[in-house]
Amino acid sequence: MNVAILVGGKGGRIGKDKGLLKLCGKTFVEILLERFHDCNVVLVCRDKAQAEEYSRFGRTVIDEIRDFSPLAGIYSALRYFKDYTLVIAVDMPLVRRELAGFLFKMCIKTKADVVVPTWRNGKLEPLLACYSYDSLREIWSCIRKGERRVYRAIKNMNAIYYPIDELRKFDSNLHSFMNVNTEEDYRKILKVVGCL
User: Fold this and answer.
1) Distance between the two ends of the chain, CA-based, in angstroms?
2) What is the DSSP string of 24-86?
3) So what's the pLDDT on residue 69?
4) What is the C-alpha to C-alpha distance for residues 116 and 177, in angstroms, rounded to an integer?
5) How much is the pTM?
6) I want to staple 195 with a disulfide (CB 3.0 to 4.6 A). Which of 18, 24, 35, 112 is the partner?
7) Which residue from 91, 105, 100 is spatially nearest to 31, judged by alpha carbons?
8) Whole-number Å distance between alpha carbons of 31 and 92
């Protein structure tokens, strides 16, 4: 399984590099790398300085399009693997391996451009999703137009919108989709894991 961990965000709202936040003594990036230790994993970084910082953890690749959005990270990951790629944001440290593997296998089986978990209200989780190499065309088209929103690229793809509630068979509380943007989010995750 090809896994791209997007570490490039600047963590503007929390004021820290989110991949280096800790849960019970381990950084988010270390937790994800352990969980996917037997996969082809690459850390997608925003620039050379961040890539140097993260190179102690594993293989890194630098965003080909600078200062854009997570869409650029997905683009760089697909250009790196040139194959089906599971994308995970580094601020989602509770991702269940079984859930991730299911999304990856479904994308291959259905030959979809993307399999993206979707909430009942229609909100997408594009940063815990599997993309095919064919999705690169639409992603590049959006980047070229200056469109930063991932969901706009997905809208024009052969997409499978997978109901998140059906993923409870792998993660009953859906903790896989908890992410950290604020100190409050961070405290919630610490509490769930029992580090608080």
Assistant:
1) 33
2) TTEEHHHHHHHHTTTSEEEEEESSHHHHHHHTTTS-EEE-SSTT--HHHHHHHHHHHH-S-EE
3) 85
4) 12
5) 0.95
6) 24
7) 91
8) 10
155: enclosing H helix or E strand? helix 150-155
Displacement of CA 36 from its chain's centroid (Å): 13
CA separation for the pair 88, 100 (Å, rounded): 9
Contact criterion met (CB below 8 Å) for 79 and 136: yes
Tokens linked to 21: 């936040």
60: phi > 0 → left, psi -120 to 50 → alpha, else beta; which?
Answer: beta
Q: Distance between CA 118 and CA 159 in Å, rounded?
A: 11
Cα separation, 117 vs 100, in Å, equals 10
